[in-house]
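User: Sequence in, structure out. Go.
Assistant: Echoing your sequence, followed by the structure tokens.
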Amino acid sequence: MRPGAAVHLGGHVHKMVKGANIGLAALSEDVGSVMVSLGWSSATGEGDADVSVLLLDGRGKVRSDADFCFYNNPVAGDGSVQLLGKTPTADGDEDRISFDLDAVPPAVDRVVIAASRYGGARFGDLNGLALTLADRSGERLVEFSVEDAGAVSAFIFGELYRRSGEWKFRAVGQGYASGLAALATDFGVDIDDDAAEEEVPGEPEPDHQTADSPMPAAVSPTAVVPAAVLPTVTVPVQSAPATERREDATEAPQTGRKSPSRPRTAKKKVTLPKAARKSLAENDSWRTARLFPVSALKSDREREMRATSILLSVMAQVPELGRRLTAGFGAPAGRMETFTEVSLPHGDSPRRPDGVVRVERAGKLWTALVETKTNGNPLKQEQVQAYVDIAARRGYESVITLSNDVALEGSPLVDIRIDGRRKHKVALWHLSWAEVAHQAQMLIRHEGVGNVSHAWLLQELLHYLQHENSGCHGFQNMGPAWVPVRNGIDDETLCQGDPRALDVIESWERLVRQVCLRLGGELGQKVLPVQRTRRGAEPRARRAALADRLCSEGRLQAELRLEDTPGILAITADLRTGKLRTSIEVPAPEQGYPLTWAKRLIRQLAAAPADLHIETLVENEGTGPRGTLERLRPEPADILPKDGAQITGFRLSLFKGMGSGRGNAETGFIRSVDEAVDRFHANVVAHLDRPTPRPAQGRELTTELTTAS
């Protein structure tokens, strides 16, 4: 199970074609909440797009800024829509959106599902464009594959709409060559005048507007709605660097300053400053009183009980966290109550799941059982199977497992049996402690929560999760195959097809995904692993090929894609030499002279470690001159090829000895990878020039509510 992936009884998936529609009730009895996933891949692994959702009234227009959900406004004002972000798949990325259809206001007739690209990128450049829709249990109901996206930078995949009190889905497949600004304008979003002149010089031109187009006639570029009742979308032509935007976001609640480039929403959010206030303690030996102490924890059972109770209580008290952690599991947006150590009958002896989550919305109840493990302890198949059986008998919707392990697509942490004779389906979901910490950090450091008390509660939760005594600090063990595989590589006895190599590849992939969660939470950015595989590759087959490569080359490799960085961050663990290499390839500027490029690069790296290796990348020849930063600082020209070869970029690398232990101790491999990535990003990547700012239809759209006159 990967995070957000359910184990369920497979059913028939309805294949949709452009313009077709279908009633959801005809496909499943459990469509009060649905999950929509937008997926794509690219040959380079770098293709990306931003999802947006618009809630429309009977006129086909948004009612307010809360009806326009996008990167900077991921949750609808009524909680009926939540953008859950991206997850890597076997052949690309998948962006998931949770819809609580029972909570959609009666005034909303249609919900449009769209995505946009930036920087001149087009949807026709992506492969495998597809939309899938699943019910509350995670069973896929609908699939719509897009074959003809074309040269458009915004695209409507589909829409959910009401007919006679029933929700239906339509496969739209509508492109906009003029980008997200044109799409938003069509649906009544008022674009700032200056930005509109920059971005939309004329009327928006839908890409596929034909007589057979499924786009309803209500979507008209000539329709006019009074600006006084519409949100204003501000589209800055130039944006500040990501680091500056994050600093503004954390300082604003205290100073009252507003940065013109900082993302805003209509409702002010509270975040905590990164810099802690000066302590009033007499000396460093004094310890701050904590809401959730960890000093008295002794046994694994105590850790499990306390961690479960702390997390579930904070989820119930901080709606932003509770909703974020359960929306992907099909829970509605409603009143949440949580319980621990509940006794439930099961044969001769009752079972006591670690927790129960119950959410009420409009008189309907959603319930999930929770099974928790801490300190690296594995989930037990017998326990999880019993809870799935109990949930099925009692009509519960889900079983949620929570442990240090990061689940992988195609490699479930526990195998369960599903009785196909039962009408009621139970979804089995997995959540890692690393993902919980990531979501808490994103809320209190970058996105904000409703009030200061909620921010403080999340801060206490995060402190607890990250403390070494809690047992909740994420994936921490490379497994029993790690040492034998390293020894086999050293003495050249490891053969292709060895199942232990496959175990190491799975552990490596879990570690890489955890690094992405941790780094993304610290930076306030999406950090995703890049997977360069052909479309349709089966996850197990892909990992088997990587295991064979590990046996022959002795190296583990990964690539991370970070926003606002000039390239892909690569990690290579050479098990033969015991060295970790972190690197990034910086493309050469399009204008200027090579010597100017070299001098500018050296200036950017003024604070970088002296042992940073710099290689020149040249066209058709691979690499050119190379040297350490210490040697190149006085003579940047030494990095230039003497034969005048065309420079395509520069590769920057740091090397570090890697730990030998399989766990997360001081000498452990996992800790050495964390430290290498942190050092490289903080000392090298963070100082490089950011890519060219994205145009207006990209991520810098911000909303500001206009006051009705």
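User: And one key feature?
Assistant: The two ends are 52 Å apart (CA to CA).
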